[in-house]
Amino acid sequence: MPHQDTPEPTPAKNTFLRLESEVRSYCRSFPTVFTSAQGATLRDASGRTYLDFLAGCSTLNYGHNDPDLKAALIDYIAGDGIAHGLDMYTEAKEAFLAEFEATVLKPRRLDYRVQFPGPTGANTVEAAIKLARKATGRHNVVAFTNGFHGATLGALAATGNSHHRGGAGIALTGVTRVPYAGYHGEDVDTAEMLDRMLNDPSSGVDAPAAILLETVQGEGGLNVAPVDWLRRIAQIARAHGALLIIDDIQAGCGRAGTFFSFENSGVKPDIVTLAKSLSGMGLPFALTLVAPEYDLWKPGEHNGTFRGNCHAFVTARAALAKFWRDGSFQTAIEQKSALLERRLTEMVERFGQDFRVKGRRMMRGLDVRDGDLASRVCSEAFLRGLVIETSGAHDEVVKVLAPLTITETEFAQGLDILERAVAAALEAPAAVAAE
């Protein structure tokens, strides 16, 4: 999560400070003005370059300005393609849907109706929760500790982070919070705890409309749901008449190793939420994937002005065609994941300090056990030309979200910078780092 103690940028400082809301966050961690980007590299107004291990918080899995995606968009705009179509039929939407079905759904034997709920992750989570309540006639949603699902009121009610919840200004209701896998330690089966509570008429937990979870909790600290636990949660949802919603907004589109983070588990969710890297190029775009028997909406019952972003349809189709039609991209992710795991493990062995590696595939990080130390690591990394951020309940995990397309040379360079930053942060007094 963004830090709050880094100086504001000097270039154009007065403009930002005079006009922009205090709600700004990431810019406080990276005090410069960025002007251009390509692949895994950012450039600022002074001409300095930075390796990007944030990637729009996993919105740029395919890097900045991929040339093929950019060319597809430029050609579409140059040909006066429809830019905005609400939910009307357009060639761009049809091309995306056909590609999504052929390249993503059919090879995985998944049968979903595709809903365009609006442009953001919060939009698709809101749609998923509303639809589950409509389908079941129930109101309660089971969500998990350290989960993050968005900052609009329905999604925020399911979000655990107290900082974000505190911004609501209203009671956040309709959600029962239960412990995620490993929350009470490896010896406590939290799936069994949930099942027992739902079977106990005196537990005080209302029968749920849905169970909502991330298979890898991105903002929550890179906590990973074991496959057996995930399967058990799916069984519990079925047994109790609840829909299983998997939030794949950050972990999807290859970040956790496969297009969907759950596809190697054998679990088939009733609803899947996708956003972030779905457009392939940072354009606002989200999907709610719904099992056909639960597609119970009446026309226009859930809508949004920007649910028909044709520019995003174009780049999303191009991304699927380029990266997911065969298995080569997924193989490359595995190779880079192995490099990342090895290097982070070496850092743990070098620095000790009770550090540990967390996460899965290209959604991994270094848990340094202390938010202040993690903040210093990120600050030291930025000084050395690396953009990286933190996550976790106490911002204690330095989270690596490099573009999946990063070259192995660039990846190694960035991890070298990260290792030097950890060493510098361990040596730097906290008071100096906070100045």
Silhouette: globular
Q: State the distance separating the first and last CA atoms.
A: 19 Å
Provide the CATH top-level class of the domain at 68-323.
Answer: Alpha Beta
What would you give as the CATH superfamily of the domain at 68-323?
A: Type I PLP-dependent aspartate aminotransferase-like (Major domain)
Poorly predicted runs: 1-9, 430-435
Name the structural class. alpha/beta
Number of helices: 15
| CATH topology name of the domain at 68-323 | Aspartate Aminotransferase, domain 2
Strand arrangement within the widest β-sheet reads 4-12-11-10-7-5-6
Largest sheet entry: 7 strands, mixed
Radius of gyration: 21 Å
Rounded mean pLDDT is 95
CATH architecture of the domain at 68-323: 3-Layer(aba) Sandwich
Portion in helices: 25-40%
Strand content: 15-25%
Topology, number of strands: 17
Summarize the structure in words.
The chain is of the alpha/beta class. Among the domains are: 256 residues, Type I PLP-dependent aspartate aminotransferase-like (Major domain) (Aspartate Aminotransferase, domain 2); 44 residues, no CATH class. Helices cover 38% and strands 15% of the residues. The chain is built from 15 helices and 17 strands. The strands form four sheets. The protein has a seven-stranded mixed sheet with strand order 4-12-11-10-7-5-6. Strand 1 and strand 2 form a beta hairpin. The N terminus and C terminus are likely disordered.
